[in-house]
Design goal:
13 helices, 2 domains, 5-stranded mixed beta sheet, Nucleotidyltransferase, domain 5, 10 strands, 393 residues
């Protein structure tokens, strides 16, 4: 089964073609082609992602990226498809207003009708969570393409994609995954602990009550005068501080680390950094490094302790960590240590390209639904706060 994946939940426009085979318990995936356009340079001067600007960038780039994806994949054409005589009527019939994303539709109807129906069996598109204006671009593109080619479209949960992403890592196989498992999802928009009793069976144990951990990294970076995206810069400073000093010279709180629930809070930690900086005055590079190190230590220690307790309470045999913050070196080191200390729990982390937002994981997650007999949905709507296991209709 060949699935086209589409991801536009934030500031990456990503598309992928995945050849999916195998059963629900032992799936196998082969990436035929993948393209990603990052908007970091566009949003950098604003210090963060602006939803309407992200929407505009997605709309401008998704058709050219799609054509590039097809060119790289060398897919064979299937049956021919009739040209669309009235584009506005075509869009209206599938519930899309032609005035929205007008540039995208101009490109769509100039290029897509000339492409015959390719050997693609289904389309998967992120329906949430994420920035709703950005999500709508991918959803509308997927709906139009699905209607034009007469193939099913699967609404996919972005967080489910992050859990599924480990299945795409070359060194990880389905046999490495034993249930129950705990998934720690850490990104710029999300911090969640999830119990997974089987594929597609999720229980949300806890989540952040305010800032996501990746968001906190970016906010602390701004406090220290670092440019967006700030997470990697914080980590680089923290690493230099650890190399110089075995013990941190300052101390920040570990919010909610001792509470009995599995929720998180990083807003207070960010505020503690702000007060420390205001009191310190002008910061030297050494002081910035010390602050970055203590902030990173505090944030990751909270994630570590909560996850460790969840593994013990639920008898987890596998720990999956997914999301953009997985790129953090200190986090990887600490959780590798946690897995080594757990007698019967294996740590699985996706490769760095798969830890960020990508369309490969979206296609893979859709396959897990399709192989169980689920059908596509023609009435897909963007849901910015969509939860795992929620219905899309």
């Amino acid at each position: 089964m060949i699935i086209l994946g589409i991801e536009t939940s934030c500031d990456e426009t990503a598309l992928a073609l995945l050849d999916c085979t195998g059963t629900a318990t032992l799936p196998h995936f082969k990436v035929l082609s993948e393209v990603i356009y990052s908007q970091i340079a566009v949003h950098e001067k604003f210090g963060g992602v602006f939803p309407m600007l992200a929407k505009r960038e997605h709309a401008q780039n998704i058709v050219p990226l799609f054509l590039s994806l097809l060119e790289k994949a060398h897919l064979k054409e299937g049956t021919s498809v009739s040209n669309i005589s009235d584009s506005e009527t075509f869009l209206k019939n599938i519930g899309i207003e032609s005035k929205r994303e007008s540039e995208m539709w101009k490109q769509f109807f100039e290029k897509i009708p000339h492409i015959g129906k390719l050997n693609i069996d289904a389309i998967a598109v992120t329906a949430g969570p994420g920035l709703e204006p950005a999500l709508w671009v991918g959803i509308n593109f997927a709906k139009a393409l699905g209607a034009f080619w007469n193939v099913p479209v699967f609404a996919t949960n972005h967080m489910e994609g992050h859990i599924t992403s480990v299945l795409l890592s070359p060194e990880i196989t389905s046999a490495d995954i034993r249930f129950p498992l705990i998934a720690l999802l850490v990104s710029g928009g999300h911090t969640e602990l999830v119990l997974v009793e089987d594929w597609l069976s999720y229980k949300l144990l806890g989540q952040t009550r305010d800032d996501a951990v990746g968001e906190a990294f970016d906010k602390v970076a701004r406090i220290l005068g670092l440019t967006y995206p700030g997470g990697p810069k914080i980590s680089k400073l923290a690493e230099s501080a650890r190399a110089e000093k075995p013990v941190s010279p300052i101390s920040f709180p570990r919010p909610m680390m001792q509470t009995k629930d599995y929720d998180f809070s990083f807003s207070g930690l960010k505020t503690a950094v702000l007060y420390h900086v205001q009191k310190a005055g002008d910061l030297s590079e050494e002081m910035k490094a010390d602050i970055a190190r203590e902030f990173e230590d505090a944030a990751i220690e909270v994630l570590y302790k909560k996850t460790e307790r969840a593994i013990e309470e639920y008898g987890a045999k596998t720990l999956i960590i997914g999301g953009g913050v997985v790129a953090n070196k200190h986090l990887r080191e600490q959780f590798t240590q946690l897995a080594n200390e757990c007698a019967d729990c294996k740590l699985l982390i996706p490769t760095l390209p798969l830890s960020t937002d990508n369309a490969v994981m979206i296609a893979a997650a859709a396959y897990l639904h399709a192989v169980r007999g689920e059908k596509g949905n023609s009435d897909i709507r963007a849901k910015g706060t969509l939860k795992l296991a929620a219905r899309f209709a």
